[in-house]
Design goal:
By secondary structure, the chain is of the alpha+beta class. The chain contains seven helices and six strands. It has a two-stranded antiparallel sheet. The radius of gyration is 22 Å and the shape is elongated. This is Protein DA1-like domain-containing protein. Pfam families: DA1-like.
Length: about 190
């Protein structure tokens, strides 16, 4: 709804949210003078953000979506949370949404690779093994569905999500994720 106010019409529905909390108070920049009748004169204020140590309060995802879509949304929203917790506060929409889409895409790629016939269930944790064996070999339907979700990210036409993903993905492919994130932290933009 907020995007629609500013003219951004991207998706007809919200599938996930990362909620965070901050408070803004006014600080006094110039000490006030007291004029006739005890009136305050010449006081200048500025907004000041108060932040808590952990300001991410929740990640919300629509219930009932396919597992691969849910996982990619969770990867996207967790990247938003990571950016907040690490102090990446003033990123442009295309950089923030772009790098979050890169993580969603990377998660989908990893899931599709892990289900390509390899024995994912070979682990010491029996509870993990039982859930992993379910995805050990991906069904043709799941593979096509995952490829479709990847294609949706890759072919998105919006400037924020689509162009942001393409710029972020190009940077990650060229420099790797850690160097790309460090560059974003230092400059607020993707490396070229």
């Amino acid at each position: 709804m907020e995007g629609e106010k500013t003219g951004h019409h991207h998706m007809p529905e919200t599938r996930g949210l990362c909620l965070s909390e901050e408070q803004t108070i006014s600080t006094i920049l110039k000490r006030p003078r007291i004029g006739a009748g005890n009136r305050v004169i010449d006081m200048i204020t500025e907004p000041y953000k108060l932040t808590r140590r952990c300001e991410v309060t929740a990640i919300l995802i629509l219930y009932g979506l396919p597992r691969l879509l849910t996982g990619s949304i969770l990867a996207h929203e967790m990247m938003h949370a990571w950016l907040r917790l690490k102090g990446y506060r003033t990123l442009s929409q295309d950089v923030e949404e772009g790098i979050c889409q890169v993580l969603a895409h990377m998660w989908l790629e990893a899931e599709l690779m892990s289900g390509s016939g390899s024995n994912v269930a070979s682990t010491s944790s029996s509870s993990f093994a039982s859930t992993s064996s379910k995805k050990g070999t991906r069904s043709p339907f799941d593979r096509k569905l995952g490829e479709f979700f990847k294609h949706q990210i890759e072919s998105d036409t919006s400037p924020v999500y689509g162009d942001g993903f393409r710029a972020g993905n190009q940077a990650v492919l060229k420099y790797g994720l850690p160097r790309t994130l460090e560059h974003i932290r230092l400059t607020g933009s993707f490396p070229y």
